[in-house]
């Protein structure tokens, strides 16, 4: 999945995340397209997260998107805010405000996700869990589009050993209002 659109075929999406353990964190992410043999998106992200209560946190972030290949223009900026409630289920609500520049208008994306992590116990010496989820999004003049865009059920499998995690996921996006149906799957290692 690219910020500006969907890309078919194999890609490498590398991420370096830094958490300062005081509410501040950031990441740099890139999308390398094996079909064209080039990087077509690099994202920089800076965030502050505040724990409101045991179960509720809020965040605000600045997100800068660079498009070296020019497929989606040269860059975009967004302010992101969100709430995360974690108890019997995890509930995420995010609002992304695209900042106008050049030919890109102001636009807003509303996103909600429900998930529940279920521990599976040990599998071959690894702690295992599975997380089913469902998400939905609505956009208002986001890249000049407005309307309900997608419902996406998903499933994650996580295997932990110490500080290392092995993660596998599959999401099935059911697109609306011109957005495509897509199956998105992948794997990553976290440390």
Q: Could you describe the 3D structure shown?
A:
This protein has 191 residues and is mainly β. Helices cover 0% and strands 71% of the residues. Strands 1, 2, 3, 4, 5, 6, 7, 8, 9, 10, 11 and 12 form a 12-stranded antiparallel β-sheet that branches. A hairpin with an 8-residue loop joins strand 4 and strand 5. It is globular.
Tally of strands: 12
Straight-line N-to-C gap: 23 Å
State the share of residues found in helices, binned by percent.
Answer: under 10%
Beta-strand residue fraction: over 45%
Count of runs of 4 or more consecutive helical residues: 0
What would you call the structural class? Answer: mainly beta
List SSEs in N-to-C order. Answer: EEEEEEEEEEEE
The outline comes out as globular
Low-confidence stretches: 1-6
Overall pLDDT metric: 91
Biggest sheet character: 12 strands, antiparallel
Radius of gyration: 17 Å
Task: Please specify the SSE layout and strand pairing.
Layout: E1 11-19, E2 24-33, E3 38-51, E4 56-66, E5 75-86, E6 90-98, E7 107-115, E8 118-123, E9 126-142, E10 145-161, E11 164-175, E12 182-190
Antiparallel strand pairs: 1-2, 2-3, 3-4, 4-5, 5-6, 6-7, 7-9, 8-9, 9-10, 10-11, 11-12
Search tags:
mainly beta, disordered N terminus, twelve-stranded antiparallel beta sheet, 191 residues, single chain
In short:
This protein has 191 residues and is mostly beta strands.
């Amino acid at each position: 999945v690219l910020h500006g659109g969907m890309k078919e075929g194999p890609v490498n999406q590398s991420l370096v995340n830094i958490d300062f353990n005081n509410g501040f964190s950031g990441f740099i992410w890139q999308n390398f397209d094996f079909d064209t043999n080039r990087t077509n998106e690099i994202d920089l992200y800076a965030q502050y997260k505040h724990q409101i209560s045991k179960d509720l946190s809020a965040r605000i972030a600045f997100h800068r998107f660079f498009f070296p290949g020019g497929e989606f223009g040269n860059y975009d900026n967004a302010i992101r805010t969100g709430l995360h409630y974690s108890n019997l289920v995890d509930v995420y609500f995010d609002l992304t405000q695209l900042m106008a520049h050049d030919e890109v208008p102001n636009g807003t994306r509303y996103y909600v996700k429900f998930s529940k992590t279920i521990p599976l116990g040990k599998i071959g010496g690894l702690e295992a869990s599975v997380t089913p989820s469902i998400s939905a999004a609505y956009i208002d003049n986001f890249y000049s589009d407005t309307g309900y865009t997608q419902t996406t059920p998903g499933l994650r499998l996580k295997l932990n050993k110490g500080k290392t995690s092995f993660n596998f996921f599959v999401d099935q996006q059911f697109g609306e209002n011109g957005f495509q149906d897509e199956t998105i799957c992948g794997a990553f290692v976290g440390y």
